[in-house]
Amino acid sequence: MIRMPVVSFAMVIIIMLASACSRQDAAINYDELTAEELEILYQQGHRNILNKLCDAYAKWYLERPEAEWWLDGSEYKREAGLKFVDYCQKAYSLENNKKAADHLRSYYLSLIDKQPLYLGEFIFYLKGSENTKIYESFVEYDSHFVALIEHSVMMIDKILSMNRYKFSDNTSEMIALFDRYRKDLKRIEPNLFMFSAEIRLIISMFDNLIESLGKARSDFEMGWIIGEFRGQIKTVGTFVTNISRIIDNPESLNKDILVKISDILAVFKQNKEKYFKQYAVSFLEEGTMK
Amino acid sequence: MNMNRWIVLVFSVVVGIFILTIGCGVFTIISRPTVELDTTPSKSVRTLDKDSFYIELDRHFAIPVGFGGECNGDFYRVISLREDRLICIVPGDVLKKNQSKFDIFNRDAIIYKVLKELNPAKHTCVMLVRPSAFEFYHRFLKDVLDSGFDFSWFPLDTFQPIVFNLKEGRLGIKR
Predict the structure, then answer these.
(1) Sequence-distant (≥ 6) Cβ neighbours of residue A123 within 8 angstroms
(2) What does the alpha-carbon distance between residue B87 and residue B76 come to, in Å, rounded to a whole number?
(3) Chain B closest CA to A251's CA: distance in Å?
(4) How many Å apart are CA A96 and CA A102, to the nearest integer?
(5) N or C: which end of chain A has fewer CB within 10 A?
(6) Between helices A74-95 and A50-63, what is the axis angle to 10°?
(7) Nearest neighbour of A256 by CB, restricted to B87, B159, B174
(8) Strand, coil or helix: A91
């Protein structure tokens, strides 16, 4: 009973200390800090903010208007990019942060067009990304698109190699074939991921081709229309062909990445071959031309 | 008199340093490895041979790949997306787990057991050397030569996988 006041006093002191400490933590609102400020805290030992740091650098690097970067200089942007990749790679490998994988997936996708070998990194982070729908779209619909482009180029080459004076004998078969491509393209368009920029243009190219073939008055004109189309689809499909070539011959990818994504490449390739065969059995094949 | 002593002392020191320098130089020349890396590997290295045993050298690790066109499934992940192509990669975790087994400075390393099982009269060693292994290459090569094996080598980039082109019967690595 005599010690009661002492114990109460000690309790009050402990509670005050605890609340003071918690207030100090609560005083830092991480969401209001810039990427560089978060980085200072991280380097001072706040290791628990790695995910926030990755997120802040990713948003800063990926979403900042180019004009603002221009004012600060390209070297500054390059440094921010390196830090973004470094912190997000750490966040993904140490804490399996799927959002970090998502940021890196977007980043590598933006590089693939000019440097197709980043396909490996893109697929690796696609696999770890929180958005599983994108992964499904890639292996299912993008593979279909690649098969369709490769098959259409092959068939057009075959058509052009046949006797030029017999185009009109096969007009309905040719239009049916191109129409099937067009319908399939329209069907897969909403779900396409990687080649969503190319598909719209290719659909309109098939629209024009079918319309022009329907109006063509001579075999010569048909040959010219198909030849023009062949040139266009090969140009527009260059990116598709490059990606497909890497998937078929992945030995040029980074071995440490390749070993982790070979299963996805195998699924993509299987799907591509499956769709390619579907076209092969359904339409004009060698020997069936009139 | 004192002056003369100093001159003799300084002269002796200079002569001593001179002799030591020459001696070290000669010693260095003698102790240099007798086998040097050619600047370019011979073209025949690319051709797959059932009697050639492939060894991957990465840092101070020697990993037995297998005979031409084969990959040791115990350590390598074999990727075959095309029938005619075999890609062999040691996953990072496998390398980490088996570091002492691959270490060329460990006399019980797997590679020395493999070399003992091979026949120098019949088999040759082909070393696939990554840049990080150049420093250790001669050290390991000495063991291979001491075991009586003929050898050849092929450079691999740091992140390049090992590729066997089975259709053309050659190492499918582009240089």
Answers:
(1) A138, A261, A264, A265
(2) 9
(3) 6
(4) 11
(5) N
(6) 140
(7) B159
(8) helix
Residue A245 distance to chain B (closest CA, Å)? 12
Dihedral-angle region of residue A72 (phi above 0 means left; psi in -120 to 50 means alpha; beta otherwise): alpha
CB contact (8 A) between residue B79 and residue A252? no
HEC letters along chain B: CHHHHHHHHHHHHHHHHHHHHHHHHHHHHHHCCCCCCCCCCCHHHHECCCCEEEEEEECCEEEEEEECCCCCCCCCEEEEEECCEEEEECCHHHHHHCHHHHECCCCCCHHHHHHHHCCCCCCEEEEEECHHHHHHHHHHHHHHHHCCCEEEEEECCCCCCEEEECCCCEECCCC
Tokens of B94: 């496998």
Cα-only R_g, chain B: 23
Q: Which residues of A69-85 are buried (b: 16+ CB within 10 A; e: fewer)?
A: beeeeeeebeebbebbb
Q: How far apart are the first and last CA of chain B?
A: 72
Q: Which of B77, B78, B89 to mutate to test the interface with A (most CBs of A within 10 A)?
A: B89
Cβ separation B79–A262 shorter than 8 A: yes
Residue whose tokens read 């990116």 = A239
B165: contact with A, CB 8 A cutoff: no
Judged by CB atoms closer than 8 Å, whether chains meet at A250 and B81 is answered as: yes
**Closest to A103 in 3D by CA, of A117, A120, A86:** A86
ipTM for the assembly? 0.74
In angstroms, the Cα distances linking A80 to A56, A122, A194 are 11, 20, 26
On whether the CB atoms of residues B93 and A256 are closer than 8 A, the answer is no
